[in-house]
Design brief:
There is one protein chain. With 249 residues, the protein is α/β, with parallel strands linked by helices. It has a single domain, classed as Aldolase class I (TIM Barrel), CATH 3.20.20. The chain is built from eleven helices and eight strands. The chain has helices at residues 16-27, 46-52, 79-84, 95-101, 105-117, 130-134, 138-149, 179-196, 199-204, 218-222, 239-246; strands at residues 4-9, 35-40, 59-60, 89-92, 121-126, 161-165, 207-210, 229-232. An eight-stranded parallel sheet has the order 3-2-1-8-7-6-5-4. Helix 2 links the parallel strand 2 and strand 3. The longest helix has 18 residues, at 179-196. 40% of the residues are buried. The protein binds phosphoenolpyruvate (PEP). Phosphoenolpyruvate binds at residues 9, 166, 171-172, 210-213, 231-235.
C-alpha cells in the first residue's frame, strides 16, 4: 500500500500574521493518521511553521532550493539552510519555476542530485502545457521530463522521491484534468518507471495530481488507482478547504 499524501503549495502567499492564522486554523482539525500532510510556506515562514507544527503530524516542506551548497548565489537558498531549519522536503520543478524563472530539465536534474545528496525528500513536479495536450504530445513530454531529470537515479534514490503530475493548463485555472485523464497519465508514469527500473519499485512510487483540486472534486480525482493524493495550490490557503481535501480519500 502506497502512502497517501496531500501537500499544500502556499506559493508567495501568507505574511507572518497570516501564517499564524492559517496554521492555527489547520491545527484545529483532527489530522488523519493514514494521510501524510505537508504545507510549503515561503522561505521566510519556514522556521515559524516548523515551530508551530512541532508535535503535529503536518510536515513542512520548502518550495524550491538551489543546487549549489553555498556561495555567490544572491537571493538563493541551499539544502543545508533548509535542513538547518528542520525542513527536509523540497518541491522541485514546479511549473511556475519552469515558466517564470527559467528552470529546465537539465537544471532540475542538478537540483535533484543536490537535494538527494543532502538527504532531502523531493516532491518533483512536471506536466504538459495546454498546446502539448492539444497536439497529443503530453505523454512524450512527460516521459522526457521524467527521464531527463530522474531516470539516471539509482533504485534506492526513489525512496526519497514523490512525483507530482501537474498539467500546466489546470494550475490555478479552475480547470481540472478529468479523473480519467489524471488516472491515464498516472498509469503511464508508473509504466515508465517500471520500464526503467522494476515493477516493484514502480508500485511503490507515490504520484500526486495537482491542478485546481478543490473539496468538491478531490474525491473523484483521488479515486484513480494510480492517484495517490494531491499537490494543492489555491485551496491550501484555506484550512477548511485543505482539510476537506485531506479527508477526501
Ligand atoms: C499548484 O500550484 O501546484 C497547484 C496545483 O495550484 P492550484 O491547486 O491552485 O491549481
Amino acid at each position: 500500500m502506497r502512502n497517501q499524501i496531500v501537500a499544500g503549495n502556499w506559493k508567495m502567499n501568507n505574511t507572518t500574521a497570516e501564517t499564524e492564522l492559517l496554521l492555527n486554523n489547520l491545527l484545529e482539525h483532527q489530522i488523519r493518521e493514514d494521510v501524510k500532510v505537508y504545507v510549503t510556506p515561503a522561505f521566510t515562514q519556514l522556521s515559524q511553521s516548523v515551530a508551530k507544527l512541532e508535535g503535529s503530524p503536518i510536515q513542512v516542506a520548502a518550495q524550491n532550493m538551489n543546487a549549489a551548497s553555498s556561495g555567490a548565489h544572491t537571493g538563493e537558498i541551499s539544502s543545508s539552510m533548509l535542513k538547518g531549519v528542520e525542513v527536509n522536503t523540497v518541491i522541485l520543478g514546479h511549473s511556475e519555476r519552469r515558466s517564470l524563472y527559467g528552470e529546465t530539465n537539465e537544471s532540475l536534474k542538478e537540483k535533484v542530485d543536490s537535494a538527494l545528496k543532502a538527504g532531502m525528500e523531493i516532491i518533483f513536479c512536471f506536466g504538459e502545457e495546454l498546446n502539448e495536450r492539444k497536439e497529443n504530445k503530453h505523454f512524450d513530454l512527460v516521459k522526457e521530463q521524467l527521464s531527463s531529470a530522474l531516470f539516471h537515479l539509482p533504485n534506492e534514490a526513489w525512496s526519497q522521491i514523490i512525483l507530482a503530475y501537474e498539467p500546466v493548463w489546470a494550475i490555478g485555472t479552475g480547470e481540472t484534468a478529468s479523473p480519467e485523464q489524471a488516472q491515464e497519465m498516472h498509469a503511464f508514469i508508473r509504466e515508465q518507471i517500471q520500464a526503467h527500473y522494476t515493477a516493484a519499485l514502480a508500485e511503490k512510487v507515490v504520484i500526486l495530481y495537482g491542478g485546481s483540486v478543490k473539496p468538491n472534486n478531490a474525491q473523484e480525482i483521488f479515486s484513480g488507482e494510480d492517484v495517490d493524493g494531491g499537490l494543492i495550490g489555491g485551496a491550501s490557503l484555506n484550512a477548511d478547504d485543505f482539510m476537506a481535501i485531506v479527508n477526501a480519500f
